[in-house]
Amino acid sequence: MYLITGASGTVGRPLIDSLTDAGARVRALTRDAKATSGWPSGVEVVEGDPSRPDSIAPFMAGVTGIFLHSRAAAAVPSEVLALAKDHGVRRVVALSATNVDEPADHQPSRFQGDRNKEVEEAAVASGLEWVSLRASFFAANTRLTWAGQISAGDVVFGPFANFAEAPLHERDLADVAARALLSDEFAGRKLELTGQRSLTHAEMVAVIGTVLGKTLRYQEVPADVAAKAMVTRGFPEAFVEALMNRYRRLAGQPGLVTGGVAEVLGRPPRSYADWVADNASAFRA
Questions:
Q1: What share of the chain is helix, strand, coil (3-state, %, to 5)?
Q2: pTM of the entire structure?
Q3: Which of 62, 138, 214, 218 has its CA 20 to 30 A from that of 165?
């Protein structure tokens, strides 16, 4: 039995599919069990809050491995893993990030609740077999930032056209997480996982256009203008500031590309074009 925290999220949901496809038994932990329709048959859905370990204690029984999401258990990862160890859990796979060792004020996800470093350190110190998944930029982030503009027109306005990442398909990350839970091969590893190749903001927008069959262009705007627009749209100011810090520091450099996904899965990562094709409806009016 595998306990998945953050089960209804960007990584947790496809991880459930990867595990059930492999014949594994899954216990999906969510804060809202009513929002879980359409999940694979046989998945045990339980309601609890990892930030309150006592609320999930009953769900540790019979669990072999746990997937620890860096946001779901951000406040108390050590307490969650101590509880897991007390109940005989053998392995933890922790979600971290490739930028985990960068300055905190250059890690935007920290200001949305992720505690990648703390969760990774808790896994290493837990006394369990552990694997840390240091994931790169999620391809899914481009849906959040650009889908509205692309569905409404042909120009994407944003900062730092030459900032580059290697976008990671969430299904690749989920497949790696499943292998790490099911196999002994990667115990004690911090796996750096990226997409297939480095793409600038401008190149990503062009890829979206190619997949959609339309001509799109990225129009760079000053960072302060972009930051104000993001805050107006509801993004926390601290998040926006950290994002711009990161853009300024790394603009013009290629994004990190590693062989981590291929090492674990024995195949190349899915391309960004693959991800866009899988999510094309989000970019259409």
A1: 45, 15, 40
A2: 0.93
A3: 214
